[in-house]
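Suppose a colleague, Dr. K., hands you the sequence of a protein chain of 299 amino acids and asks what its three-dimensional shape might be. Before reaching for any lab equipment, you can write down a predicted structure in token form. Begin with the sequence itself:
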Amino acid sequence: MQEIIDFLSQPMAVKIIRLLLWLFVIVISISFLRKLLKRRIDDVTVRYKAQKGVEIIGYVLIVLLLLISFTLESVKDYTIIIGLFTAGITFTLQELILSIAGSFYIFFVRVYKPGDRIEINGIKGDVIDIDSVYTTIMEMGEWVSSDNYSGRIVKISNAFVFKGPIKNYSMDFPFVWDELNVFITYGSDVELAKKIVLETANAQLSDYVKGSKTKWSAMVERYYIEDAKIDPTVAVRLTDNWVELNLRYITDYKRRRMTKHELFETIEQSISQTNGKVKLASATLQLLQIPELDVNLKK
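The predicted structure, expressed as tokens, is then:
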């Protein structure tokens, strides 16, 4: 007991206890302010940003407190010990330190934000939360086809923003180019088929084309990128089995699957009304009928 009292009476021990108390106060204050903001702010977006702002301010205060504490005059004699201790902590917690640095990088550089659709470290999905260590994603794909949720929530370390490419589907330009192939038989009216495909695309994608042209103009002004054709286009390719019509178009990144379904459905209905002028092709094997044989046998 006396040894504990003697230890606590030392100036160094007093400063460490004081530092721990301040850290405890800051952590409790962050938690209290987050709960207060959750009750007072109804708008989800504003509430989320306010809570994250409180967290960042709290972490800055903790870092400043640690810097001030370890640069006091009375600690100068322990610089070697503190240096070795800091080096050990840095090596042990390098992933955690990178994750915290990554969170600052994400917020200040605007790599992505909640609501964006991204692909990082081979995982694709919508960002639903970003904290000081992890980015939480509602996963898409895997065993589920196209851009559908798999139902799994994935947490990815923020350190990955420094380790590889990040594909953002919605930042600056919330549209994607997609393609659709229509196969018709040889002998079909190719020009009529092209007209059907283009008219269908223009009718169903007019809203996307108008919105995307404005966004794309802003992209061309901001980045070093050449101008691109936004309107739907059709390219024809001849194969061994059929004539391929390749439709290239632009659509909202969240409606890629549904847009392709609606285009296919309308194009199929329009082709069926051409009275055989345009026929859809398929990889089928057609057996020709054997001609009748008239055999006379003489006795």
